[in-house]
Amino acid sequence: MNPAIDTAQLDPEIRVQDDLFRHVNGPWLRTAEIPADRATAGAFVSLFDEAEKKVREIVEGCRDNPGDDEARKIGDLYASFMDEDRVEELGATPLEPELAQVDAIADVAGFVRTLGSLERSGVGSVFALYIAPDRGQPDRYVTHLMQGGIGLPDESYYTGDDFEPIRSAYVDHLATMFGLAGLDEPEVRAQRVMDLETRIASHHWDRVACRDAVKTYNLVDREGLEQLLPPFDVSAWAESAGVPAAAVAEVVVAQPSFLEGLATLLVDDELPAWLDWLRWQIIHAAAPYLSSAFVQANFDFYGKTLSGTDELRPRWKRGVGFVEGAMGEAVGKIYVRSEFPPTAKERMGELIENLVAAYRQSISELSWMSDTTKSEALAKLEAFTPKVGHPEKWKDYSALETDPGDLLGNARRSLAVEMDRELAKIGSPIDRDEWYMTPQTVNAYYNPTMNEIVFPAAILQPPFFHADADDAVNYGAIGAVIGHEIGHGFDDQGSQFDGSGEMRNWWTDDDRAAFDALTAALVSQYDDLSPEGADGQTVNGSLTIGENIGDLGGLGIAYKALQLALAESGEPEPIDGLTADQRFFYSWAQAWQGKVRPAETVRRLTIDPHSPPEFRCNQVVRNLDAFYAAFDVTPDDALWLDPEERVVIW
């Protein structure tokens, strides 16, 4: 049996009772270097790198030995990205047709029509659109509209004093890009765009409000949409974008007040600013596919300034990413042939079954929830759909036309094909076989409107999943991931959806109040935490509450599931002096091995709904009695939390 926990890598200078994260990962944290082309390093990144190498073999094989039509297209896409001579030769010329469209705009109506015509090219718009099941009627698809229009990560970047250096760097970046595109007065244009984006950002909802499933569900008909945004001719825009009338007959508007604010800016007096803003959107969308001057300038701001990354990723890595973005499932179909053995799916099936059983037991025994709400919660649990490894039905890429000599054209055509694929959902039955991640993605997710948990093949590897390790190790890592995703169905937002995926209040008032009190206590715990490299900036407990509930419930329920498994197999003998319970928590800490550049730490604290790795590890175990018992934690130890302050929700 694979021991999976290397005790030689533990840090004897740091007690597990004081800091589980650094006791398990200390030597690695001291010696590991973040790659120059990365903002982070750790378990997730290592797995991503391994998957990326496998994908490189796949796409280079398709380029050198095109077999079927999909393989040829994969090869074309990669060849077009790797043809540096062709890209350098073209310089800024690929931008000329779209920039000429902007030059021809005479009024707001023309601006709206042009926005529509550029929608298929991936050019940023004043709002973002996507097609998804209707939260109120999850058996049908509906168009969703979200706020947009800004180039910085978050509306707070436009006002916060701490972000003034970034704002200044952003204006410089805008000027650089305008200059590279051959436009005159680049500094004037840059400031004009910054001023407009600042006004746009003033109407943005913050990220805490944006994650509220109820507040962001505002179903309006075509007339209601036009009333929110009178200057925007929806018909003209849709016709230019090739969007069928059915796709805008009803729309879920996430932030209605944003559209009302946007309406005050879509006036002829602001047209010069809007035209420069649109020129910037065109340049920015195309930058990764243009000559090295554009690529480097794009990286200097978005990679180096915002995330602290030292070097641009090698061209082959960016090429692999481009292919995956355009034909990810075609690549995944090849990937799973060698990287996803049937035994992995079987073992995952057992783990999921035990995690669901543990949730069932835990929900049944909750002291703070009434039988009425428990019945609804258990019904939702039984309705969960697990998906493991890869889709049963693969996407069809026959509509995509590729050209090995036309990189930007390939990018635009792939975006147009995906847009058509999404629009075709309107009026069609819900596709319950669809995946929102490729098999080669190192991640997992929960989808509330389908009540499904999804685990791509690439995450089913050490340190998350060991095919030949003991149960304690697997339950502490991939078991906690499974529990985390199930937990999203019962977090502050997921708990507002029932087992059919409908957003419906299935709680009694008293039970919801009790749940809210528990989540408020967890928010308070995380609000006080500040990671290394953050210069005192703290976690936003309200922004991260959903993921924190997922982590807490995931690990707690994974521990219960481990006990169910051991009750059948018997308590194992210690391995390397570690009991099963200790190995469970060591595996958890090993999975969260990670370090982040300071600039990236600050960026994530502002916009990321996940807590930093050290807190995803340590703060969770402080709330679990099993951790205290496993390591004899006492009030004198740093990880001690008084019993009355410990939060256990599920």
TrEMBL record:
Required cofactor names: Zn(2+)
The Peptidase M13 N-terminal domain, residue ranges: 17-391
GO molecular function (one): metal ion binding
Matching Gene3D superfamilies: Collagenase (Catalytic Domain), Neutral endopeptidase , domain2
Record has Zinc as a keyword: yes
Ranges for domain Peptidase M13 C-terminal: 443-647
One of the Pfam families matching this protein, by short name: Peptidase_M13_N
An example Gene Ontology biological process: protein processing
UniProt entry keywords in alphabetical sequence: Hydrolase, Metal-binding, Metalloprotease, Protease, Zinc
Any one cellular-component term (Gene Ontology): plasma membrane
Entry keyword annotation includes Zinc: yes
CDD domains: M13
Family: Belongs to the peptidase M13 family.
PANTHER family tied to this protein: FI17812P1-RELATED, ZINC METALLOPROTEASE FAMILY M13 NEPRILYSIN-RELATED
Protein name per UniProt: Peptidase M13
